[in-house]
Design brief:
By secondary structure, this protein is an alpha/beta fold. The protein folds into 2 domains: 134 residues, NAD(P)-binding Rossmann-like Domain (Rossmann fold); 105 residues, NAD(P)-binding Rossmann-like Domain (Rossmann fold, 3-Layer(aba) Sandwich), CATH 3.40.50.720. It is built from 12 helices and 11 strands. The strands form 3 sheets. The protein has a 7-stranded parallel sheet, sandwiched between helices. A two-stranded parallel ribbon has the order 7-11. Strands 8-10 form a two-stranded antiparallel sheet. The longest helix is centred in the N-terminal third of the chain and has 17 residues. It is globular.
Length: 282
């Protein structure tokens, strides 16, 4: 069984490759724009291609049985980017090519149903290939938005400190993706993915401080100041992100047990993630 991992040098895709190998997969093909620089394990077949240019994909799809479909903008998928019409059309074309090549399962990384990532799932379903939708919320790595402030001092100025959700480690997303690629019985399923606990933004900053052996103070900014601060990193999507945090302050996201149920191992806690990635904040 040949498995194609797209976005194989992206944050999630690279970990999907590792998870497949760890689970005993022996025929893994990885799509990358530069096979030499990708430095993938020697047992992985690295092929040149880019999801944003579907014309580069036919050779990569040849002989593939199952495919992990990375979102077209994987590098910024959880940091404020919104999938637009052109990205949705490109995704649909990639899926049609996969169907024509004989791919028999697509495991895609999307997001909450009905939101801006819906175009990914729509494109996958329209091509007719059996699918598994993975629908993670915010990534734990988004805490990097605070890294410069924490490196510079003990005060984090941010917004909506009481906004609560259950961010997920990308390692857990990759583990679920590999599981759904290798095991049968998940076709036509949609899996909401979260971390194991719902935490406020204020609590997450406190846990980063604990990982660093420091006491951090969270200062809530008014909405407009929060948007202005976010604009430095997110540009036009800052207001969209801030509005989402306001919504989470009023309607917190609950954690779901899907990661543990599918993989047989507990999902990564934010405290454990912070300890493992403490260098990000130093």
């Amino acid at each position: 069984m040949k498995i194609l991992v797209t976005g194989a040098t992206g944050g999630v895709g690279r970990l999907v490759v590792d998870e497949l190998l760890a689970r005993g997969a022996t025929d893994v093909r990885a799509l990358t724009v530069d096979p030499v620089r990708a430095a993938l394990p020697p047992q992985v077949e690295a092929v040149r291609g880019y999801l944003g240019r579907p014309g580069t994909l036919p050779a990569a799809l040849a002989g593939v049985d199952r495919m992990y479909l990375a979102p077209f903008l994987e590098s910024s998928v959880r940091s404020g980017a919104v999938v637009g019409r052109s990205e949705g059309e490109t995704n649909a074309e990639v899926c049609r090519l996969a169907a024509a090549a004989g791919v028999r399962r697509i495991v895609d990384l999307a997001g909450a149903k009905g939101e801006h990532w819906q175009v990914i799932e729509d494109g996958v379903e329209a091509c007719g290939v059996p699918f598994v939708h993975l629908e993670p919320g915010e990534f734990m790595a988004n805490a990097g938005i605070w890294s410069a402030q924490i490196a510079a001092g003990d005060v984090v100025r941010d917004g909506y400190g009481d906004a609560a959700n259950a961010p997920i480690a990308i390692e857990d997303i990759a583990a679920v993706a590999a599981h759904c690629l290798l095991e049968d019985g998940h076709e036509a399923r949609s899996y909401e993915l979260t971390g194991p606990e719902s935490l406020t933004r204020r609590t997450r900053v406190e846990q980063i401080g604990q990982a660093l052996g420091r006491r951090l103070t969270y200062v809530d900014l008014p909405h407009d100041e929060f948007v202005a601060q976010l604009s430095e990193a997110m540009g036009e999507y800052a207001a969209w992100y801030a509005d989402g945090m306001r919504e989470l302050a009023e309607h917190p996201q609950a954690a779901v047990p899907t990661v543990a149920e599918l993989t047989g191992r507990p999902a990564t806690t934010f405290a454990a993630w912070a300890r493992a990635h403490a260098g990000m904040f130093r």
